[in-house]
Amino acid sequence: MWAGRHVLLGVSGGIASYKSCYLVRRLVEAGASVDVVLTPSAAEFVRPLTFEALSGRPVLTSLWEPGRALVHVKLAQTADLLLVAPATAHLLARAALGLADELLTSMLLARRGPVLFAPGMNDAMWAAPPTQEHVAKLKERGWAFVGPEVGALAEGASDLPGRMSEPETILQHAERLLHPVSRLAGKRVVITAGPTREAIDPVRVVSNRSSGKMGYRLARAAWARGAEVRLITGPSMEMPPAGVGIERVETTAQLAGAVAGALPSADVLIMAAAPADYRPSEEAAKKSPRRNGSLKLELEPTEDILETTRQLRKPGSVTVGFALETGDAEAGGRAKLEKKQLDLVVINDATEPGAGFEVDTNHVLILDRRGGRLDVPLASKAEVADRILDAVESWLGSA
Fold it and tell me: Is 208 tagged catalytic?
């Protein structure tokens, strides 16, 4: 997504400017080249040298620097994205009025491409009518906003918006803004993720090693492509992606109910969750102490969720299943593709190093019901998610 991209990051004078340091680092790590533009007041919060060290490029602070005539026009017109974080109330006012009294506002006035503001200020200043009028005017120009959010401010806790969004949230909104036009744009995509848990007693559960990483990466990537995403997730330590509707479940039965409720309007269903295949026939009312010796459990099969979706799928929708196999993984996945009447199945081998549960990488084989076969070599789960969604888009385009 970011490899080869050029980002112009404007930083105005708010305490949240320290977060912009992390934002620069994340962009550079992702492969972007970043030019940082500081307003005079921003340079009072974070010195230019800090941003220069993080970006590896000279920091721009003035219209009057020798040898940089018309730099504001050139950079404003060639950068893939002009991102302002934080955008203070003063900066928003000057931008809305078209003032060009220093380098960053001059660049905004000359800008013809995507602009993303991440406001950060006192909650009362954000709510003030003049600020809201300025924001409305900037949105009318087609410029985008992320945040502000509710949270602690420099002056203390607040239950009203004003706090600048976190760098990772800003990054995800920027990805969505810059993503090429996608067949998933405007589509309703339902994705399941993580394990389910079946209670043995009030303390113990039957579960599996699924972390939810693959499903969460898919949800982030689908939202970046413009989809309306609903993520139905079992217990997971993963951070929820920006912009994604989250529904949390515990048991396989709860997962089945949530999927059934979402299916009638879903254009795409991606079943990346790993629901428990078995549950105790009876849940004990009390914990059985270890001193009692051996514990014997009678297990019964849980619901086959993919099977139950067959009559609920929206006509013309795309259904993607996952098959985590051992042994002949491709044969097992192909059988699942046919039996569950899937459009696509994503297969991986649980015994392969670097693939499967609790790791950040994956190697998958994607089969479709028309005989298509795509082997995706070992890569990050974010990269694998994009390849899976490419396959979904191809299917949507040929339906």
Answer: yes
The two three-digit tokens of residue 82, written as one number: 């002009």
Alpha helices in 101-154 (DSSP H): 103-110, 123-127, 129-140
Q: Find the catalytic residue in 122, 208, 348, 362.
A: 208
Q: Could you give the CA distance from residue 162 to residue 169 in angstroms, rounded to a whole number?
A: 15
- Contact by Cβ (8 Å): 200, 232: no
289 φ/ψ angles, rounded to the nearest 5 degrees: -65, 150
User: Which pLDDT score, from 0 to 100, does residue 160 have?
Assistant: 81
* 250 in Cβ contact with 181 (< 8 Å): no
The C-alpha atoms of residue 66 and residue 368 are separated, in whole angstroms, by 60
CA separation (Å) from 296 to 270, 289, 356?
36, 13, 29
Nearest to 342 by CA among 296, 307, 297: 307
Domains annotated on the chain, with CATH:
6-178 (3.40.50.1950), 188-398 (3.40.50.10300)
How many of the other CB atoms lie within 10 Å of CB of 270?
29
**Gap between the terminal Cα atoms of the chain:** 27
> Any bridge partners for residue 269, and if so which?
190, 319
Say if residues 172 and 220 touch (Cβ distance below 8 Å). yes
DSSP string, 36-79: EEE-TTHHHHS-HHHHHHHHSSPPB--TT-TT-TTHHHHHHHH-
Could you report the per-residue pLDDT of 151-198, keeping only the tens digit for each? 776 766 777 888 899 999 999 999 999 998 899 999 999 999 999 999
